[in-house]
Fold these 2 entries.
Entry 1:
Amino acid sequence: MKSRKLYNRISVLRKERNISRQELADIIGVNFQTIGYLEREEYNPSLDLAFKISEYFELPIEIIFSPKPMKSIYKEILELKQK
Amino acid sequence: MYKQLSKSSRRIWISSNFFSLFILLFFFYLGRSLDSAILFYAGGSLSVIAAIMTFIKAFIHTGLWKMVHSNKDLDERQNQVLLGALKNSYSVFTISVLLLVYGFALFDKQPIDVLLAACLLYVAHILPAAIIGWKEKAV
């Protein structure tokens, strides 16, 4: 079975926290090239890796990953506040 | 730290490595058919040097050899890539060797030579790394 493409906000969140790919890779325990693959959405992480990333950014997993193209994080927070 | 080569550079080094093996075998069979040991030793030694140099450049400097042969520190994506490469190389190598054995049995009527067997043994070892180097954007 072919898995769906997962969209993510890793690149935005990483830049916001001002850390390099290498630093993020060291924190979550992967090769730095894997961060590039994740940011380009060329690789779907395992559930364990997705949780590690969400724990590091201290955000719910669904804010970071989605099977649908993602809106800007600020728009999404505004929408959540309005609900 | 391993050297990051572009996909096209990696492809060039990998092709050169395989090409040097073909040249080595070419000199071996040419030397045998012309009964010239000098031709084999001169051409053969040059191709072996080329094979060693391209092997170092394509597989050692890029870390591809270590990735395939000492896979303790690989993450989940690298393990997935390695698994796919091993699967592909198993199919490619098995079919190629069987075709070669069949060809030898059909046309040559001789057993496979020591040099050809050594080349096949080498190819069996580098094929997964070559597939990764050929296909992947970054390794």
Note: Residues 47-57 of chain A form the longest helix (11 residues).
Entry 2:
Amino acid sequence: MSDCISPSDAALARRLIELTQAGLPVVAEPWQWLAAELGLTEADTLALLTRLQQGGAIRRVAAVPNHYRLGYRYNGMTVWDVDDDQVDRLGALIGREPGVSHCYRRPRRLPVWHYNLFAMIHGRSQQELDQQRAHLRQLLGEARRSDDMLVSSRILKKTGVRLPETLARTPSGIPDEPSQHSAHQSNPKPDTGSDHHA
Amino acid sequence: MNDDQRRLMNRLQQGFPLVPSPWRALADELDLEEAALRQQVDDWLADGTLTRFGPMFDVEALGGAFTLAAMAVPEPRFEAVHQLLDGLPEVAHNYRREHALNMWFVLACDSPAAVTRSLEHIEAVTGLVVMNFPKEATYHVGLHFPV
């Protein structure tokens, strides 16, 4: 549990997850709808959403496009070996690039795996993907010792990320975002809520 | 997509306003008609252009635990190991990637301890080394696809 989220907010967040599993209804006053469902005023509902967003339980309230429909059919997991002293600065730097959807520091596993910085990139063509990778390489400059890009050739499993049992009252859970579909899958499953990618 | 649709798509990806009458706020900002905005979002949800409209939760912030892990699976055993992982409910994603580490999967568990147990279980049943790549820092999460 995040320190930033009070127990009462966490309980409301559970209700919120249930209520918006299929998304926010596209009605004129969605916050009033939500307020009525939660038994709160509209002002308290907006305050709750703001607190949950500040505490990190909600990443954002937004529309998630099917990126295949928008033409983003190519993706790659770029991985970089950069100086530990500089990884935080460099991660923030490349994480800001528009083609990067996820950017994390992860541990090296020597001698097999030298890379400590991971960034998922997306493009509308192989050329665009290659350009993005080249651009990241340029941004990382001399701090980059080596790098690679892993392309998924097959989705072996893609189910929803289930809610932790302690949170879940309904069994359907929350699927993860459609971030890593291979080019072979043209019609990704609907995304119903979690913005998380491990 | 026409210009208005593009502007709406780009704007909606940035976030829906957390203010009373959010559609009106959006309509004013984009100088478009409020009811038409909602109709467009409805249409996009119906035809699959949008996969979701609403809050995006970080389950980890609410107590869940995740990790990314990878294995170098010998080709003759690839299908069998794939089937094995398929049967584990905590394996949320699994991808074949073209690399010596050819199987990459995401574990989604109730707690960090459950992640550790699952990693040990997978090593035990496959006899393969599982490389665990937990997040040590998050620099960016967010899909934004400009159109």
Note: The first helix of chain B runs from residue 3 to 14.
